[in-house]
Here is the input.
Amino acid sequence: MALRSIVGLPGDLAVTDRHKGRIEGYAIVSEDGMLATADLVMPDSLKFDADRRFFEQGLDGVDVVVHGRHSFEEQTHSASRRRIVLTHGTPSIERNSSNERALWWNPAGASFDEALAALGIPEANVGVIGGPDVFVLFLDRYNAFYLSRARHVLLPGGRPVFPEVPARRPEEILASHGLVPYPALVLDSAKGVTMVAWRRARQGCSER
Here is the structure.
């Protein structure tokens, strides 16, 4: 998975309180909080079957996937999913001419609600899959953020899950935006891979 940073986007234009569907984030990071290497490629050392299965099951349960231009999930149902792709290449919202189920969205020119409405699913359940500047746009609106961590992997100088990492740990950032950790789920004990669901404190949702 290659990642492209989307910078300089005002957060108050990106997501509003009007959206009624769920917004969930999905990421796997190294022990030092990185999504990818310095050249923006997700290495094989950060790919695990158990996490892939969890990730795929999660995205199968949402109505639309949101990501940057060079992020993608490479899953069985990827081609059939509706998606919103962040870009500076359009003033606001534009249909993707090569994929009728996708559109381009520039948060500086249109709200997230407008993007969902343009896709025809204004109350959609949303899965956000990165990169870092896409993840950060939704920090105050996530209903849940599923953070997987590979304890035995280090990617010094890599691409962080949030722009403030490594100065702050991902968990500290999630907590500072009102998300509360649930007990860790062990995805692969031999390889040290765990997943923690971070949820809004006001919600008493059961684990997915």
Observations:
- The chain has one domain: 19-200.
- The longest helix spans residues 49-60.
- Confidence is low (pLDDT under 50) at residues 1-16, 203-208.
